[in-house]
Design goal:
This protein is an alpha+beta fold. It has helices spanning about 15, 60-70, 75-85, 85-95, 105-115, 120-135, 150, 155-160, 165-180, 185-190, 195-200, 210-215, 230-240, 245-260, 260-275; strands spanning about 5, 25, 35-40, 40-50, 50-55. The structure holds a DNA duplex (13 and 12 nucleotides).
DNA sequence: GCCCAGGTATAAA
DNA sequence: TTTATACATGGG
């Protein structure tokens, strides 16, 4: 099977899947194909130039995957707007011009990014996989991401046994709050960014970083775009190649960008500075 | 075996 | 308000 999913510029399957937005995908080293999992769906995708193909999966899921990869949005214009008059963003955009913001299911994104704290990507992926295997619906060779109700069967002790560590109590609190209501898609859509962030941060273990990641990688809130994926790309660009950007330059740009929230930006960049050993 | 991670809660300054 | 630590665990 080889169904065309999309054809157009400004989209890179690999850049998008490997930009740290999602934790359930696999790359076939031989063919370069990616298997992506989202909720209880799975698909195998390949990209040849501007053409993206669904190579394995359900044809009726094609509209879902188009939405998931945010393929119908004009990223040319979006990127221009983001990079205008901003050297750091311009650098980020040219470093990874094919990144799209995923529209992942809300609960899966929330749980994944709670798992992400003080953790590295290979281990986050391992944890997510174990969570699916233990509590998600068996799909024949793989497991769906558990629903809030399914994950409500888990208590702190069993989550710790899975290896969640101190994040176990955070997961329990998140599941409890989501099951209690107030997190339906229509309700979240009604809230502005600030209200949404405050709502998420009521959950134990959800700080600004996780809240923003959920808004970015699930809810399409572009206004918080610079706070995560692009900044990370900039840091990688600064660390791995090209003209090195000083931490000071990044901080100044971030302070300008975040305005009143410069403190957060500093803290945020401090972490990345430490992580990537940039600056002093 | 050691190091450390797509942070956050909490204490201390 | 800002800055420093503890945290659980296992992938690399």
């Amino acid at each position: 099977m080889k169904q065309i999913l999309w054809s157009g510029a400004d989209f890179s399957l690999s850049q998008t899947l490997e930009s740290g937005q999602c934790f359930r995908f696999e790359k076939d080293a031989g063919t370069g194909a990616y298997t992506a999992f989202a909720g209880d769906r799975a698909g195998v995708f390949m990209q040849e130039g501007p053409d993206v193909f669904l190579c394995k999966g359900r044809v009726e899921d094609i509209p879902f995957w188009r939405q998931y990869f945010d393929l119908e949005r004009d990223y040319g214009t979006l990127k221009e707007r983001l990079a205008a008059g901003d050297a750091v963003m311009a650098e980020a955009v040219s470093f990874a011009p094919g990144i799209h913001l995923l529209r992942q299911e809300f609960f899966e994104t929330l749980i994944s990014f709670i798992l992400s704290q003080n953790n590295h990507i290979p281990r986050i992926r391992g944890l997510a996989a174990r969570l699916c295997a233990e509590y998600g619906k068996e799909m024949g060779g793989w497991s769906a991401f558990p629903t809030p109700e399914e994950l409500a069967r888990a208590d702190e002790a069993s989550l710790r046994r899975l290896g969640c560590g101190f994040r176990a109590v955070y997961l329990v609190d998140a599941v409890k709050k989501v099951c209690a209501g107030g997190y339906a898609a229509e309700e979240l859509e009604r809230l502005g960014t600030e209200e949404l962030r405050a709502r998420f941060m009521e959950i134990k273990g959800v700080g600004r970083k996780v809240a923003d990641c959920v808004m970015l990688f699930s809810l399409g809130r572009y206004e918080v775009f610079p706070a995560d994926v692009w900044i990370r790309r900039v840091m990688e660009a600064a660390y791995f190649g090209g003209e090195p950007l000083s931490l000071r330059a990044l901080q100044e740009t971030a302070a300008a960008r975040f305005g009143k929230d410069a403190g957060f930006a500093q803290q945020y960049l401090f972490h990345y500075g430490r992580m990537k050993k940039i600056g002093k």
